[in-house]
Amino acid sequence: MLQPKKTKYRKTMRGRLKGSATRGAEIAFGDYALKATTRGYITSRQIESARRAMVRYVKRGGKIWIRIFPDKAYTAKPLEVPMGWGKWSVEMYRAPVKPGRILFEMTWVAPEVAREAFSLAAYKLPVKTKIIVD
To answer: What pTM value is reported for the model?
Structure first.
């Protein structure tokens, strides 16, 4: 699964997801794209699950680009642990997504194949999406 090789700081502060995406909001590589319409965090497992769904549907026929990368650390405490004692270890990495962000791009496939592959991938993601045709 996707995660950074090395980070400057092991644990990151959460920050806030305000506004809409300015970078990564245009189709850059392919002919079809899956664009987020709501905000949220997408984990590396969800990205991999969506990628597998698309690859299996197109049967290695097209080229797929992943335009997001999970580089924000998420820490969690175990169950039934009392409050306090600081921040716990990193559980997973996730990618912050704002509305308008391009998540995946695809080319070298028919439009109806791309539409169906993106709809299968959208089921795996926690944000609402729409399909863009260049």
So the answer is: 0.94
